[in-house]
Amino acid sequence: MNVRKMRLYDTENIHSGEDRDEYEKDYARLIQSPAFRRLQGKSQVFGAGSGDYYRTRLTHSLEVSQIAREVARRLGKQYAFLSKKEHPGLMIDPEVVECASLAHDLGHPPFGHKGEEVLDRLLQEQHGLKYEGNAQNFRILMFLEKRAGSGSGLDLTASVLLAINKYPFCIDDPGRLKGVYSSEWEGINSLRQTWGMPGNSATLEAQLMDLCDDIAYSTHDLEDGIRAGKIQMDRGFFEDDRLVTQVIQEITNDPSYSEANWEHVDKTAMVKEVLIHYLEQWEIIYAECDREPSRTRREMKARWVRKFANEVGIIDDPEANWKKVTLVREGKQNIELLRTMEILKKLAWVTLIKDFRVQRLHKRSEVMIERLWGSFKNYDTGHLIIPPDWLESYEGQKDKWPWERLAADYISGMTDAYAEKVYAEFFASRSGSIYERD
Questions:
Q1: How far is residue 302 CA from its own chain's centroid?
Q2: HD domain: which residues (predicted)?
Q3: Neighbours of 148 (CB within 10 A)
Q4: DSSP characters over 92-111
Q5: Residue 286: its pLDDT value, please?
Q6: Judgement on whether residues 350 and 366 belong to the same structural domain of the protein
Q7: Alpha-carbon dihedral angle through residues 148, 151, 153, 155, given to the nearest 10 degrees
Q8: Three-state SS for 339?
Q9: HEC string of 357-417?
Q10: Is 202 part of a structural domain of the chain?
């Protein structure tokens, strides 16, 4: 058996045609799933529907998949050990990385990171359960989504499932902030054991997907921010000491912050240097593009994506006794460029997410999710206002899932607009018709 193409449930391939490669089937199952379509209505940075220009979760996922697929192809030519196929977790298949990139954000609820934060708080405070977007991915892929002949999600290949699993541990274990819910961890862990995956190491494909996600965040979100006028391309904006301080604060407050990566570094000096370099590069490209902002934004984004993507490589990770996908220069991890990427990510976060107008929208979305949760969380009343197919799914699985988890599933699957629609049905003073279709 090819362990990379095995499936957890359709082990004999009786529900799948033989006319396509297994990864082609995975790709089709993903892009034709309702969960994937709903990404078009979920926030990336700006609320979905804020404008025709700005990215949604769907366009972000497509862009990550394009970057990851091309980098995967280059790595396959660059590193001879990949062709030896010595271990299923030490291989990089462009089609697998593409599928994983398309699926990596399926678990995000409406209203971006704020929605995730609120659902997690409500579930933990009231029921001792966690909510986390990466874990919700597997809840969707392994249970909530349905395909013909399967009652167990999309039943993707082991390669794709493990390529999505960038946090390879159970989130329900004490102290874990990210991972996989225990209900789905059993299946994921069994695949990891079959592959002989070491410790908490992720496959090379999962690491590559995760790094390309960071590349997209640190370049595309800035493009949206410039277009929205949140990032002003002038020296007064980029030399503001308050901006520098806020960027540093976000870097050090990040849960993934490692002091070792910033050892002996003057953070203030480096942040100022990166910001000024970014502005000076803009000024050069602006002149090259005949002072046309739209062309300049696109070219600026393209050059930074190329800069990061061309540095992606693979090195040995002695501590984990495994391989590591990271930014590499001359055979060593390029820490300086990784710091630059982190600074640009935090620049986007500070100027976009922390903007007081965006925070007002977040407060509005927090209120909506809290009140929707209050309407659905109790079975006695919630089952009367949830769609029949969701109720049928709960009745068939209630020995495995508590009602509160399914209620969270329902809310988290909503697009921004649909969440507002249901909220208006419950709480707004307006007339409606029962013949309006969801």
A1: 21
A2: 57-218
A3: 6
A4: --HHHHHHHHHHTTTT--TT
A5: 97
A6: no
A7: -70
A8: helix
A9: HHHHHHHHHHHHHHHHHHHHCCHHHHCCCCCHHHHHHHHHHCCCCCHHHHHHHHHHCCCHH
A10: no
Side chain identity, residue 329: R
Residue 437 has a pLDDT of 58
Which helix (DSSP H) or strand (DSSP E) does residue 231 occupy? none
Q: What is the DSSP string of 9-59?
A: S-TT-TTS-SSS-HHHHHHHHHHTSHHHHHGGGSBSSSPTTS-SSS-BHHH
Question: What pLDDT sits at residue 18?
Answer: 57
Based on the fold, state whether residues 184 and 259 are members of the same structural domain.
no
As a whole number of angstroms, the distance between CA 88 and CA 4 comes to 6
The per-type count for the chain, helices as H runs and strands as E runs, is 20, 3
Residues whose CB is less than 8 angstroms from the CB of residue 186 and which lie 6 or more positions away in sequence, other chains included: none
Q: Which two tokens stand for residue 227?
A: 């277009």
Assess whether 292 and 393 both reside in one domain: no
Same domain, 182 and 306: no
From edge to edge, which strands make up the β-sheet containing 322-329?
312-317, 322-329, 332-333
Please say which residue of 298, 329, 354 terminates a domain.
354
Please tell me whether residues 171 and 242 are part of one structural domain. no
264 and 407 in a common domain: no
Q: Which domain holds residue 125?
A: 22-195
pLDDT means per 10 residues, the chain with 438 residues, are 86 58 94 94 62 76 96 97 95 98 94 91 94 96 80 90 97 93 95 95 98 93 87 94 94 88 93 97 97 95 97 95 97 96 93 77 91 96 94 88 94 94 86 58
Distance CA 328, CA 45 (A): 29
H or E element that contains 325: strand 322-329
- The full DSSP string for 259-284 is GGGGTT--HHHHHHHHHHHHHHHHHH
